[in-house]
Specification:
Radius of gyration: 33 Å
Oligomer: single chain
Strand content: 5-15%
Largest sheet: 2 strands, antiparallel
Order of helices and strands: EEEHHEHHH
Length: about 140
């Protein structure tokens, strides 16, 4: 058995990935506070850290990057959710002010376009032989 005096530290253990790294960030240190690591880890990851728990208080650069990306993704999702709620409320208000206006989809499927074009070509040939039932023909006959 060697003595602890001769022990050589080869790195620090990352709290999140449990791997040894030579360069780490102390969660409760200046850089950890700058990145709000305690709040991001406790608030957005399924673990809880505290200064008094017996586990490592360091994270590696790769885990720091992933924590920041995860936090930014969740913030973006929250902002988009709020935006979608506001849009939904705006649409509901518009529909309440115009209750008799029918709701129509602005997107036509290719089958609908083909069906409409075939219907219009068959109705235009039958309307030319009839007394002019379309709105355009009625305007021209005045």
């Amino acid at each position: 058995m060697g003595s602890l005096d001769r022990a050589c530290i080869s790195g620090f253990l990352c709290r999140l990935c449990s791997e040894m790294h030579r360069i780490v960030i102390h969660i409760y240190g200046e850089q950890g506070q700058k990145h709000n690591l305690v709040e991001k880890i406790n608030g957005y990851l399924p673990i809880t850290i505290s200064p008094t728990d017996p586990l490592p208080k360091t994270i590696c650069g790769g885990c720091l990057k992933r924590v920041q990306q995860h936090y930014e993704l969740l913030q973006r999702v929250a902002r988009l959710r709020e935006h979608n709620i506001e849009l939904k409320e705006s649409i509901q208000e518009i529909h309440q002010t115009m209750p008799n206006r029918p709701r129509r989809s602005t997107i036509a499927l290719p089958e609908q376009i083909n069906r409409r074009s075939s219907e219009s070509s068959s109705s235009s040939s039958s309307s030319s032989s009839s007394s002019g039932s379309s709105g355009v023909e009625q305007e021209d006959s005045d």
